[in-house]
Amino acid sequence: MNAPRTARDRRPARAPARLGLTDPDAGRRLADLGWWDGDDAVPAAALVVWALARAADPDLALVAVERLREALDDEAWDELDRALRTDQGLRGRLFGVLGGSTALGEHLVGQPERWRMLRTTTAPGRVFDPSRLPTADDRRRTHLDAVGAKPDDAVPAATVTGHAAVELLRLAWRDDVLLLAATDLQAVCEPELPILPVDVVCTQLADLAAAGLEASLAVARAEVGPERAGDHRLGVIGMGKCGGRELNYVSDIDVIFVAEGAVDSATRVAAAMMRVATEAFLEVDANLRPEGRSGQLVRTLEGHVSYYRRWARTWEFQALLKARPVAGDLDLGREYCDALAPMVWSAADRDDFVADVRAMRRRVEDHIRHEHADRELKLGRGGLRDVEFAVQLLQLVHGRGDESLRGQNTLETLAALAEGGYVGRDDAANLAASYRFLRMLEHRVQLQKLRRTHLFPSDDDTAGLRWLARAAKLRADGRRDAVGVLQAERSRTTVRVRRLHEKLFYRPLLESVARVPGEQLVLTEESATKRLAALGWSSPSGALKHVAALTSGTSRAARIQRALMPVLLDRLGTTADPDHGLLAYRKVSEALADTPWFLALLRDEGLAADRLCYVLGTSRWVAEMMPRSPEVLRMLGGDGPSAELVARDPAEVAKSLRAAVGRHADPRSAGNVARSLRRVELLRIACADLLGLTDVPHVCAALSSVWVAVLQAALDAAERERVGDGPRPAKIAIIGMGRLGGAELGYGSDADVVAVCEPAEGVSDQEATTYARGVVEAVTTALGEPSPDPPLEVDTKLRPEGRTGALVRTLSSYADYLRRWAATWERQALLRARPVAGDAELGERFSEMIAPYRYPSEGLPEEQAMEIRRMKARVDAERLPRGADRALHTKLGIGGLADVEWTVQLLQLQHAGRLPALRTTSTLEALDALRDAELLSADDTDALAAGWTVATRVRGVATLVRGKATDQLPRSGRELAAIASALGYPEDDPGACIDEYRRVTRHARAVVDEAFSAV
Questions:
Q1: How many domains does the chain have?
Q2: Strand pairing partners for 236?
Q3: Tens digit of pLDDT for each residue in 571-622?
Q4: How far is CA 1001 from CA 648, 906, 924, in A?
Q5: How far, CA to CA in Å, does 396 sit from each of 317, 321, 399, 746, 996?
Q6: For residue 866, what is the domain's CATH number?
Q7: Distance of CA 846 to CAs 271, 734, 818, 849, Å?
Q8: Are residues 537 and 424 in the same domain?
Q9: I need a labelling partner for 463 at 20 to 30 A (CA). Which of 37, 147, 607, 687 fits?
Q10: What CATH number does residue 731 fall under?
Q11: pLDDT digits 0-9 by tens, 495-519
Q12: Are 398 and 422 contacting, i.e. CB atoms less than 8 angstroms apart?
């Protein structure tokens, strides 16, 4: 049994914990290396221990040192041990790389003599000197020498080929990466040494890639054979991060090949070069070439020019911003870049530029896995790609007339944009700092295992976060530990970058037009106009006038508008109609100029500002109405099911509307109040609809409820005007027909009604109908007053005898008419009849009176069924507007509303007499009843319900987008893009909306063709 350990015995196990070592046996292991004496570090090795303790992962570094000792003989280990005790630079570089990269630690263990590469060979300065790193030419010579090629030859060819050449290139690559990474991580172990600038690291890695490509090309020439290698010229164009000299430690090397001479031979050499380079160090990717993977690997200069002139998309010109000759025939590469440059710098003039820009902006966020969204350093919101995209877009817009902006490097171009006055200097500096920080984190997570990754450690990965914080040289700040500092700095950085569009695109515009002190900006009106045009504004000059009107002056409102405007312009710029949206925003601002809560709401409630911009820029209907009912803005800030935008009870809304209107005796005044309150409710419903916060049945029910409340309020007012508080000569009931009766109204629907009355005791039928007619006429006149709001059309043409018949009939007269004269179509119309206003008891008796006619107990005679089918055929043939596309007409088109409703109503007429569940005015409820009664299969009812729902939804959204009632889904254009976006389809693929609409309605029509004919 072992004797108890004394306090002195336990010290070696505890003391190293203060150094960040978690292994309880670390003290003994350090002692085995000769660096620990049981109480503390050996005096001569104290600096070694403390340098190791500062490594990103001291435990990992210690394990690697032990393995390195095992790989070295005693003499070599003694040499390393002495060097570590005396060479501060070696300590920093060795422990930095061993604690920061398991992959490079493995490389050192496999090639233990390589540690000597990390020794200080010149006087170590405390500030990094870039001249200590190899130049691009040095790297090229090193790699060519590795495969036996002569660097000074015009066309170097290797003397080593095959697997041996790949191994030599891999070793040369790892050696160079080891030296660079050690220099990069040195500052982690040396507190007084600053972190190596990320710009320098990226440039070195790009030069290293170029050298590797040149050496791989030399091997490829040798493998293909000198006779083929000499019959052509081949230039290798670096693209992406390689071309921009901003490469990562682990990244694809994007290239394009251009040749002169024998293209077949050049293609063989290029293919061999890609294979060798990919096997030796990093994957070489030529997918940015014309036509991508399916295109020729190698083209002549003329072939490239012809393709880009005729076929290239905007994103391809954006990719060419990074083009730079990196290997092979550099003169031919420069000819390539010079030939394509004019097309690159005129790309912003192309007709499809705006659409492509919008697609590119969405692509920034779309190419990210949902589960990684919060951890992506590259593709996530506020990530590296955001900055790169913004800089490239500004290059395309302003580089046409300013050659200083035509660089390949993101940070250099950002500085040039600031120097040229296109971006504020502070904004540029902040974004550059954010970019450098994110790239540094990206480099660290890639170095750990030399794997291609851009993921920040997850919140539950404590060890990973701690390692990254130390690798980034972040320390506790008194309030937070190093991990807390890392998380806070990353969050702050991404939030700052998320505003890059407003910072880069819109704030300079604001400072140009508002005449407020800028940061030495020189953005002219012409430049500002070009920028807005590139971002999707159809009338840039008009937009600038609106911005100037909103932001000029020294008032508090102008100051808040200046703070808000970049955010609002950015959000509006992503909508379908930013110009009209900005005009509407100006009108809203002017309408609420004296209202203190308006700007404060937008400033403090980001959700409200986002939603306002979206609905104003998407819907002309909302944009026209919002300035007249700006109080709806208060509802835009709430979120969740309890938010006022979606949680208002239609019954409560109707009660409030009737109470407000009830305070006005004059029907015209009451009508004005009803219209005003209706407008607020319509706006609320429309905003919730556009924002995807409600569904079709709720929208239809809410719109119908508003109409019912308006009718009831107007009817009350008209009766008060006629008789005051005295006795009424007759009871009046307003019966909703059509969509009003079915509670299926849309934004542009009329209110189809019929009116019935019943005389009071002692009043003749004629006196009663005269009184009722006067009341109903007053209602239709008051509601029909000209107004900029959506019209309140009360349509009575479904009454007996149509337009020539009496406006109001007594209940007994109505019953007599139905008994004697009712046509089949009138029986069908009664299926949607529902009392909506007036005397409830009279309305109920009307429903009982018409029941035998709409729900015949014996079913529908076959001749009447045939009559309905003939009427439907006549409607199909005659009612479709001239020029309308039947496949895209929501009401009368294939599988549209009429198809589904006629089928449902025919089945109701046939079976509702014996099936009470079918006695409903609702189309969807009737479909459920038809399924439950097994009159239609579940698949068929689902198809009909889907057709009806999608047609109703498309019809409503199209009306909101266009600003007026419409039944037609457009085939193309901005309106289709807006409708598709509001329906949840990608704006860059509005055709998907049409394809889905046609698919759903085609399935519905297939059921109609079978069921309607079979009944």
A1: 5
A2: 257, 327
A3: 888 888 899 999 999 999 988 888 878 888 888 777 888 899 999 999 999 9
A4: 32, 19, 16
A5: 9, 8, 6, 44, 35
A6: 1.20.120.330
A7: 84, 10, 12, 5
A8: no
A9: 37
A10: 3.30.460.10
A11: 888 877 666 767 666 655 544 444 4
A12: yes
